[in-house]
Amino acid sequence: MSRNSIVVIGGGPAGMMAAGTAAAHGASVTLLEKNERLGKKLYITGKGRCNLTNNTDIQGLMSNITTNPRFLHSAFYSMDTAALMTFFEERGVPLKTERGGRVFPVSDYSGDINDALKAYLRATGVRVELNCAVQDIALQPPFTVSTSRTTTPIQASAVIIATGGLSYPSTGSTGDGFTWAKHLGHGITATHPALVPILSPEPWVASLTGLSLKNVCCTASVSRSNGKTTTVYEEIGEMMFTPVGVTGPLILKASAFLAGKWAQNPIITIDLKPGLSTEQLDARILRDFTVHQNKDFANALDGLLPQRLIQTIINLSNIPPSKKVHTITRAERQGLVHLFKNLQMHPTGDAGFKEAVITKGGVCTKEVNPSTLMSKHTPGLFFAGEVLDVDALTGGYNMQIAFSTGYLAGLSAAQYLNSERE
After folding, report:
1. How far apart are CA 310 and CA 326, in angstroms?
2. pTM, whole model, 2 decimals?
């Protein structure tokens, strides 16, 4: 292999985009993937449908980045949502936009995205090595990359690390990129699972397994050293109960703000009726109680709650289920209102990297040039995708990060080779 070439480590969305882009701009590129196929994690993205981006502008992208958003300015301007959608549509993958701006292939099949990327690699002449794990990388360029498949090390003038993070380790995301980044002198910001189900030990939570709630407000707060609490997340949306805790869009987002804060005694509060003020809800309950005044309390909540939630609320209210509605006191009713507006859980942690959509943390962005994604320490070393300390909320934003940083890293690496030749 020529020393005037690029090695890309990692065959996920960032790595494939980086390799194809570099090759399209004249570089000789070899893509190394330790799995038996490319894009293994892509196949399960968006529950197999591949939510590849969000149909919004750059400001919309930036507002959904939870870690180091300013670092991504150049990457998003290099390949924004419109450019990414055009990229796939020009390669025969029609796309559609669904609720919340989420973009999917019309086929609802993630394999179509993967196939388009693989076709891009073939068209640009990228050499792909599968079942090829990196075993060592020399520190200074020309880089010397030793692998499990090649008997002699590969020499290259530039290396792009796009190995992903630690989430879904069964797909090959086992933190290899962090190992190589540290080996090459880079700091790694502490890593945590994010966009992950949350564990909660309360028995009533497990009793509601499978129940989905829509249009509820989730608030996540943590304790500070002075004894006060701070709200770190609040949003209206959907959630679901599991045998060990909670999940769903609201909870996955909340987990991103609770990552690394589990020692701060977090509390998750659910407002079951966010559209009603405390006074309005009290008036509504009073109306229902007037209609059902001769019924038992247990039979008076049908118009207010999903059937499966009623028994839980009765148990938590401390109002005897057989108590006649007309005998419920004002204080008991106000306690019920408070419960509707402040249903609390005390989570103990998250479900870990095996169920996390993304990794929070990674290669320290202060040590990487945001305009090129090249290391500030080692010329010719580039980073792309989840290996970097950048992450976003659900809705296609993390995939856009992967593609945008992959594109910029590939383009920058090719330009770096050209400048070296000159």
Report:
1. 19
2. 0.92
